[in-house]
Write a structure and sequence with these properties.
single chain, about 325 residues, mainly beta, 4-stranded antiparallel beta sheet
Length: about 325
C-alpha cells in the first residue's frame, strides 16, 4: 500500500513552465517561504501571468506577483543577488533572449538589460551567485556563460551538444563545473577553467531529458531518459552508473528532494516518487495533462508539479 501525501492543487494560471524556490541562507531574507512559478506570459494585467509568488507557509496564498510587460512567452528563470547587492530575476523568453530584471519592493520587475547568444529556444537559465555567473542553455546545442558585472559580459561559449539541450545546472559544491543533458543521448560535465572539451561524457540509449543532483552525495546525479530509464550516475566516473527503474513511457522531468526521494514526471501524465535509499517506488499518480515542471523543496518533503492544464499540484509527504 503506497503512502498518500497531503495534496494541494491550485490553478487559474497561464501555462506554468517552471517552478523554483530559492532556499539558500543568503536568499531567505528576501525569499524565505516563497515559491516562484513562471507562467508562459508576463503581462501587467491582474492574474494574467508573470512570476507568481506563493507563500508555502500560508497554504500557498499569493503573497505577491512580479510582473513585467513582455509579449513573448517565458521559458525559464533564475534569481541572483549580485555583488552590488541588487536582487535580479533573469528570465529567458521565446524570442531567444535573456532579460535582466531588477526586483523592486512593490512587486514590479524593472528591465535593466537584455542579451542573447542563442539562435534557438533557451531551455535553461541558472545562476551561480558565488562567482556572479549565469549559464544559459539552448536547443541550438550551445551553452553560454555570462559574467554579471555592471553590464552582462559573455564569458564563454560551448558547442556542448549536437542536438537540443534540455537542461544545464551548476554543480552543488564545485561551481566552476556544470552539467548538461541533451537529445543527442549524452550527459556532459564541463569545467569553465577548461572550456574546449567536456571533462566527462555519459552516452545513453536515448534522449537525456532531465538531470538533478543528490542532496546527500554531491558526486551522484540522477537522470531521466526518453526510453523510460531512471539513471544514477557518478560524476567522477560515468562508467559507474545504474539503471534504477525502467518504464514504458519516457521520463520527462526529474527533481531530487529530501530524505532521498526522487520525483519525476512521465510522458503519459504520470507523477512518481522513487525512494533512492530503499530503491523502490514510493508513490504513483496520474495527473490531468502533460507535466511541464517538477520541483522538490530542499526545506521540506514536498514536490511541486505543474501541468499544461494550468494547474500546480503540491504533494507533501
Amino acid at each position: 500500500m503506497q503512502i498518500e501525501p497531503k495534496q494541494t492543487t491550485f490553478g487559474a494560471l497561464r501555462h506554468p513552465v517552471s517552478i523554483k524556490a530559492f532556499e539558500r541562507a543568503s536568499e531567505k531574507k528576501f525569499l524565505g517561504g516563497l515559491l516562484f512559478i513562471a507562467t508562459s506570459e508576463m503581462t501587467v494585467e491582474p492574474n494574467d501571468g508573470g512570476l507568481l509568488v506563493l507563500d508555502s507557509n500560508k497554504s500557498y496564498a499569493a503573497s505577491k506577483k512580479f510582473t513585467y510587460s513582455n509579449e513573448y512567452s517565458l521559458t525559464d528563470f533564475t534569481y541572483v543577488r549580485t555583488h552590488a547587492k541588487k536582487k535580479y530575476v533573469y528570465i529567458s523568453t521565446e524570442e531567444n533572449k535573456i532579460h535582466g530584471l531588477v526586483a523592486k519592493d512593490n512587486s514590479q520587475l524593472e528591465l535593466e538589460e537584455s542579451f542573447t547568444n542563442h539562435e534557438d529556444y533557451i531551455s535553461a537559465v541558472n545562476a551561480n551567485d558565488v562567482d556572479n555567473l549565469l549559464l544559459s542553455a539552448s536547443f541550438d546545442g550551445t551553452v553560454s556563460i555570462w559574467r554579471l558585472k555592471d553590464s552582462t559580459i559573455l564569458e564563454q561559449e560551448y558547442k556542448a551538444h549536437n542536438d537540443r539541450i534540455f537542461n544545464a545546472k551548476w554543480f552543488v559544491d564545485h561551481q566552476t563545473n556544470f552539467l548538461s543533458c541533451s537529445a543527442d543521448k549524452r550527459i556532459s560535465v564541463w569545467d569553465i577553467r577548461k572550456p574546449k572539451i567536456a571533462a566527462l561524457t555519459f552516452n545513453g540509449t536515448s534522449a537525456m531529458n532531465d538531470i538533478d543532483f543528490s542532496l546527500t552525495d554531491s558526486n551522484k546525479v540522477y537522470a531521466g531518459s526518453q526510453d523510460g530509464q531512471l539513471l544514477e550516475l557518478d560524476i567522477r566516473a560515468f562508467e559507474k552508473n545504474r539503471v534504477l527503474q525502467e518504464r514504458k513511457e519516457g521520463i520527462t522531468k526529474i527533481s531530487v528532494g529530501k530524505n532521498e526521494l526522487c520525483g519525476f514526471g512521465t510522458s503519459e501524465y504520470g507523477f512518481l516518487v522513487y525512494d533512492l535509499k530503499k530503491e523502490k517506488e514510493y508513490y504513483n499518480a496520474t495527473l490531468e495533462d502533460s507535466i511541464t515542471s517538477v520541483y522538490s523543496s530542499k526545506m521540506n518533503q514536498c514536490f511541486y508539479v505543474s501541468t499544461i492544464a494550468k494547474k500546480v499540484h503540491a504533494f507533501e509527504f
